[in-house]
């Protein structure tokens, strides 16, 4: 019976170690997310279209849109809305002036919905892996 007890203890220790490793891996994945201020010091403004160039975005990263809500907004659009500067009915519109949007895997498109702003390159497209 003593041998059976030792096996149970070993199995319990292995299970505990596996759970600890799993918790560490989950924590590592969560802590590796990055927060990006769109437009850097200038914030969400005109001519920000090329801001994503050279950056690698991951699912879980956060985009921070900082702007004056009296002058701008952020509209999450699809590919067509991005290129046409026309949001579809039902597009999500952010208006806080400090919007924090967590990226899921795949492409994401954002424009300013104020007339003429998207056409003035106040739009970004990012792809999160």
TrEMBL record:
The keyword Disulfide bond applies. The keyword Cell division does not apply. GO terms for molecular function: electron transfer activity; metal ion binding. InterPro entries: BlueCu_1_BS (IPR028871), Cupredoxin (IPR008972), Phytocyanin-like (IPR039391), Phytocyanin_dom (IPR003245), Plantacyanin (IPR041844). Residues 1-33 form the signal peptide. Residues 34-129 form the Phytocyanin domain. PROSITE patterns: COPPER_BLUE (PS00196), PHYTOCYANIN (PS51485). Keywords: Copper, Disulfide bond, Metal-binding, Signal. This is Plantacyanin.
């Amino acid at each position: 019976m003593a041998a059976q007890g030792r096996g149970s203890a070993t199995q319990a220790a292995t299970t505990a170690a596996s759970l600890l490793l799993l918790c560490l891996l989950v924590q590592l994945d969560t802590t590796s997310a990055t927060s990006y201020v769109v437009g850097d010091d200038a914030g969400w403004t005109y001519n920000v279209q090329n801001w994503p160039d050279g950056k690698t975005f991951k699912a879980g990263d956060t985009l921070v849109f900082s702007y004056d809500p009296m002058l701008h907004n952020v509209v999450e659009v699809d590919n067509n809305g991005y290129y046409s500067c026309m949001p579809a009915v039902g597009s999500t519109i952010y208006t806080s002036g400090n919007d924090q949007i967590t990226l899921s895997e795949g492409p994401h498109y954002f424009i300013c919905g104020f007339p003429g702003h998207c056409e003035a390159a106040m739009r970004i497209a990012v792809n999160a892996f």
